[in-house]
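Operator note (shift B, R.M.): manual run for AP complex subunit sigma requested after the automated queue skipped it. Running by hand, logging everything below so the morning shift can see what happened. Input copied straight from the record, untouched. If output looks odd, do not overwrite the archive copy; leave it for review.
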Amino acid sequence: MNSVQLNSCEFISHLQTDLFIKMQFMLLFSRQGKLRLQKWYVPLSDKEKKKITRELVQTVLARKPKMCSFLEWRDLKIVYKRYASLYFCCAIEDQDNELITLEIIHRYVELLDKYFGSVCELDIIFNFEKAYFILDEFLLGGEAQETSKKNVLKAIEQADLLQEDAKEAETPRSVLEEIGLT
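Run finished. Output pasted below as returned.
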């Protein structure tokens, strides 16, 4: 009986360590190869980031749609998924779980959809600050910090309210408005 419990505990322990993905970076780019968003969780020079981005965009875009969404690249695994005209591409360590990474990508897309209401490439282009903010609320240092969509969206909503309050405080008012005559 103890050996069965021990094996169950070992399994759960192993499962828990598999659930923590240490992402190296995330790239969002269009079918035309235009970079729309990039988040790096490892320190690299700008030159190296550009080289990696160029190489991965070319590699992913050259792959056929029916091909596997995982590929080995250097000493990392690349996990990518296409949603409409955007590719979401993540680099994870060799021992990390690709399927969990796909779920992380999907959760980020769900968060973007909820916030923007059916997100499209233009939403990312014109509201890139919000796209980064949503990503930062969801991932911290390349690891999922909050898996609840509701909690992430609540934090974003609160930040939006703070931003609106700050804008209202900055808006100059006329003397007549201040004394209540308008």
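Quick read of the result: Residues 11-17 have pLDDT under 50 and may be disordered. The chain has one domain: 21-170.
Leaving this for review. - R.M.
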